[in-house]
Amino acid sequence: MRVLFTGGSGKAGKHVVPYLVAQGHKVLNFDRVPLGLPGVHDLTGDICDAGQVYSAMRTHAGYEEMEDGAAKLFDAVVHFAAVPRYGMVPDTETYRVNTVGTYNVLEAALKMGIRKVIIASSETTYGVCFSDGVVDPKLLPLEEDYDIDPMDSYGMSKKVNEVTARSFQRRFGADVYALRIGNVVEPHEYATLFPPLAEDPGLRRRITFSYIDARDLGQIVDLCLQKDGLGFQVFNAVNDENAVPQPNSELLARFFPNVPLSRPVGEREGLLSNRKIREVLGFKEAHPWQKQVP
Q1: CA nearest 251: which of 266, 236, 263, 238?
Q2: Could you tell me which of 177, 223, 188, 208 has the C-alpha nearest to residue 80?
Q3: Of 59, 114, 172, 220, which one's alpha carbon is 20 to 30 angstroms from that of 194?
Q4: For the whole model, what pTM was predicted?
Q5: CATH architecture assignment, domain 2-186+212-240+274-284
Q6: Domain locations in the chain?
């Protein structure tokens, strides 16, 4: 497929884009800074400028495509560009960039006739990660039908983006999938991030002990590109198990003693559940943390 990828130069995008290329997709990276990956053309632009976004939807994905004539509409859009977390810029700017940028991408793609859009939502929408104070979820495990209730500007922006995506899907009938992406871990980060969790799993309480390997996120995006006809969908994009070695019986008793369970959970099963992507998309993790940590 020819894929317009926004934010391909970011922490997650710089791993997802080469994964998609390896699967045979032609990818154009639309970002404020170049990725510089051989075989991937960088188109510098701003998602908050609606005119630039519209223009990017029908353009050459590389100079070699000029031999084929006029620029074509992309087969799909993957939208990762955003202020990537709370606290990087003032709250108003986080909210503006993330909501306006996502609106522009969805409107341009769907009004121009693209039938598949995948957007990056976030596990912060569950209202635990960036909330003030020590906050419990209403129930566990966290699954896609949860009544998400963030209090921070970043999580709020991602919740709004899911509502926007659902509305556009209802209007145009295309496939629009929102990925609630967990804490993205790059290959080089395992050596420093994970060993301390054996002694202090509480370091990951705010993200309910979850993670997503950046390369496995590439697989999830590719599976979404392959899966047609689902309309609007939300998927938790995380790995199979918690990012800590302690079993759930210990974690629940120590960190979430007052949180009810909606169903039984396995001792190693992720409390931010990826059951839906395994059952609906056929996701099979390739990079569990146990094989990555020295």
Answers
A1: 266
A2: 177
A3: 220
A4: 0.97
A5: 3-Layer(aba) Sandwich (3.40)
A6: 2-186+212-240+274-284
